[in-house]
Amino acid sequence: MPETVEGARSPVELSVVIPVYNEEAVLPLLVDRLRPLADSWGVSYEVLCVDDGSSDATPVLLQRLRREWPQVRVVRLRANAGHQAAISAGLARARGDWVATIDADLQDPPEAIGEMLAVARAEGVDVVYGVRGDRASDTAFKRLSARAFYRSIRALSAVDAPVDAGDFRLMSRATVDAVNALPEHHRVLRLVVPALGFPSASVSYTRAARAAGESKYPLGKMIRLSVDSLTGFSIAPLRFATWLGLLGGVAALGVLVYAVIAMLLGNTLPGWTSTVVIVAAVGAVQLLALGILGEYVGRMYAMLQGRPSYYVAHDSLVDSSARARH
Ligand code: UDP
Ligand code: MG
């Protein structure tokens, strides 16, 4: 168990956070598989189900489950807020020294949670990622889009995110506190967590097919996640606009010079040169100004995101008294 300052008042050693959206078909299967495992972990635990505004029988099933399984906690969101927001709500409420996040549909094997905990303790790391070694059960489109997603985010952002790690992971209390402290909306946790830079390890697992029901991630939500990832972790699109402005500005200056030369050579209609010069000059000034504005907007955005510009791994003065862990 980590010797965090919060450790003393944490009532459980492990929280399992599960986002649940219209999963009436899956819940009974999940419970059958998770409960015997949880009881075999040998740690005190809570299973924190975040009902993401389900409109099927999920809320009823969860209330029943809460009565039958004392370690279950249910948090219900008023409306469907999305997978990432549901996990964030769970992280904000989890009380464990360790917090695991896992999808409800049994695509991630709950068996791996015990393994993650063992790895975290043996290697003294804060984060253990579940990495999808084999995703043969996913559709070709899902695999292809996931591949494109993970590779382009890696290329465009400065975050060293593990490839093919989704939202199945174990985090220490210190990590969860750091995530909770970020003021950001639209958090993409699979990028936020690696960006925090805590020592990490990973366990590989085979991504199974959904145990029952339909995917709750239609194309629209997948695109949303990609846009959030890109805009949240890269100012490449903004930079692109800046460069476009600069290029446009230079091109407009070229047109201006051409118009003046053409006039001096005398082969222009009266009034043509002045028109072109005005249009080109105004265009150049606007595009360049937009580029400059873009740079400042980028800085403001970074400040609004409120991510610290560094994270301290350890400080000998503080660590000798408070943290004996690493
Ligand atoms: N989920 C959620 N809110 C949503 C969509 C999904 O809480 O708006 C949950 C869902 O119940 C599941 C997890 O997020 O536990 C992953 O969703 P899903 O399995 O449908 O996504 P896929 O595996 O198809 O990408
Ligand atoms: Mg799934």
Automatic annotation (TrEMBL):
Pfam families: Glycos_transf_2 (PF00535)
Residue ranges the record marks as coiled coil: none
Residue ranges of every copy of the Glycosyltransferase 2-like domain listed in the record: 15-175
Record's bilayer topology term: Multi-pass membrane protein
Keywords: Glycosyltransferase, Membrane, Transferase, Transmembrane, Transmembrane helix
Location(s), subcellular: Membrane
Residues annotated as transmembrane: 243-265, 271-293
Principal location class: membrane
Family under the similarity heading: Belongs to the glycosyltransferase 2 family.
Protein name: Glycosyltransferase family 2 protein
Organism: Ornithinibacter aureus
